[in-house]
Amino acid sequence: MTTTPALQKTQLLIGGAWRDASDQGTYCDANPATGASIADVADATREDVTAAVSAARRAFDTGKWPTMAASRRAKIVYRLAQLIAERSADLALLEVRDNGKTIGTAKGELGAIVDTFEFYAGAATKNYGESLPPPLPTYLAATVREPVGVVGAIVPWNFPLLLASWKVAPALAAGCTIVLKPSSVTPLTAVELGKLALEAGVPEGVLNVVTGATREIGAWLVEHPDVDKIAFTGSTATGKVVAATAARTLKRVTLELGGKSPSVVFDDADVDAAVAGALYGVYYNAGQCCEARTRILVHDRVYDRFVSSFTEKAQRLRLGDPEDPTTQIGAITNADQYDKIKAYCEIGASEGARALFGAAPADVGAAFAAGSFWSPTAFEAEGSHRIAREEIFGPVATFIRFADEAEAIALANASEYGLAASVWCTNIARANRVARAIRCGSVAINTPYAVFPGVPFGGYKQSGYGRELGMETMRLYTETKSVLTYVGEKPMNPFGV
Q: Catalytic amino acids?
């Protein structure tokens, strides 16, 4: 049973110091499973954002972090990974209470967060330049990788600390300084990350954390001329605004945006495994995942068997107290998202999609009556239906039939998004053929898992650009500098004077 934690008060981290918002403003942060207030959070002003950017700018321009030996930076990033691991139980519980996700999910994420910081600690010493063929015999030519500068990292509410790690870890490893802006509805683990960074030895001003309920905070970061790069995860609509605004000051941008990802189930698939994987792919984190495989495309020959098994198993999933280790689906993180899920279920019914189960609020008991819970839901739909085309960001699956491989590929690609996909097939030649044909950033064959530290993650089409989690991510936090050295025996005198 969830207990109400003591109300905590948070501050902003700016230039290595914790301080209140400049106007002393705060806002209330609540547990989405219970509705109970859990924190009084500092509500940053524009003045505070400017101060955070200035601190990051000073730390980059005059501090030692960008020029520190990569091996030393690596040790500090690795120490941060160790501290996160040591506090993982407390961080997981805090994430549960702030986000509404299950404790099992949160613990799994903490393991991935530690792995991410460890991976980039190693990457810090492997951010290689290149030795180039000399343009003339009397020259040496090489490239070096230098940190891009001040990074504005903007993360959403569905995976607060996990997605912060995807940005903070490579930025630190590359030698950048950072202003981290968490979602207003899930700010607490970002604040804890700031504390642990200082404890690990990250210098003052290198990592700054600004929280707030004011929607313009992200915009202030994106438009600020002293920010060199924006790393953004969020909706496609907001990502377009970020890209357009960043273009005014020619900022580098990484965008990880929305998705409407398919699971493609062929007639030779292991149906039991495909059902189990597709269940996870849709309902993990209550469906609040950009890479959720919510479009389930199933071959005619196995469609009825698959849908029957999926329906039976989905209705056995356990909803309820996110702090109970046996719970499999937790709360919807915020009221706006809950209303959006409800609206899309109504749209599906009005368009003629057939609800197989769910499509209604979940009753998880009186103790959670003030929380936001939605039942696992599935519709039989057509590709033209809005619920089969638009990102819902909730526990809502759509089933669509296909007759052959060509139709399966066409349906999989019939989306403005291109983030992830799963292919279920025992014919490995077909599986890889289809994986190559699907236009998305990650394809998982016979598994729902598509995200691992060290494996690049990102989207095609309207799902964004740039990659996170891989070695190539380091390139997105650095600039290439060419260095030419004259080594001829005679001094150069081009004008002959």
A: 256, 290
